[in-house]
Amino acid sequence: WCWFLLAALVSPMKVGLRMDFSVLLEPLGFVKILEWVFAIFAFATCGGFQGETALLVSCEGVVNKTVTAAFTYPFRLNTVVFSAPDPKGCGGTWTDAYLIGNFSSSAQFFVTLAALAFLYCIAALVVYIGYNHVYQQNNKFPLTDLTVSVLTAFLWLVSTFVWAKALAGIKVSTGASIVPGIESCKAPGTTCHFLSVTSMGILNVSVVFGLLNMILWAGNVWLVYKDTNLHSQWNRISESP
């Protein structure tokens, strides 16, 4: 598929470039546009997140000082440190306090899949629009498209599940439950109270886009399947006495 696309772009006259945008109005082309757009949304809602969790700290000489820990994609929370409540570190009792957990593998899996799906949709649209006649005449291309669609639908299912599970862990690791685990907050004369954490509604939306992408690619499997000889062979078998 990729070699065909490369050859088509390098020598369009040899392959036979025939621009036909009407394919975008057909289910196969229209669904591919939706997959392209939803891949962008999945990538942006997860990969572009920036958040912050804040505590209210009181210690000797410092009263109600806000300390923060800023976190972002790919959510390696164990590298995120809270700011010290004062330059002297609460009279020497405050030590570096980190968030807990590393959720980078799940987040990067989700975002990488979105990026690859985005690139594949562009390649597929180029073929659909410029070389649809070749796509329809050579069954190897629909079969390749079918294989990629099945694999991508499965990967969207897996990546969305693991990302949703990681998101639940991120919420716990940046919420009120972090206070008992901070050793500096246990020092004599020091008290810590959870203040706030950035809303993660946009990350919830990313999970929704993951599910929508899975549904779109699963539906695309049927649309591509109808263009393969597998579908025509099955029809001949079912119609034979």
UniProtKB/TrEMBL annotation:
Organism, scientific name: Vidua chalybeata
Protein name from the UniProt record: SYPL1 protein
PROSITE patterns: MARVEL
Keyword check for DNA damage: no
GO CC, alphabetical: synaptic vesicle membrane
Keywords: Glycoprotein, Membrane, Transmembrane, Transmembrane helix
Compartment list: Membrane
Residue ranges annotated for the MARVEL domain, each copy included: 23-229
Membrane topology qualifier: Multi-pass membrane protein
Gene designation: Sypl1_1
Signal peptide span: none
Similarity remark: Belongs to the synaptophysin/synaptobrevin family.
Keyword flag Membrane: yes
Residues spanning the membrane: 109-131, 143-164, 202-225
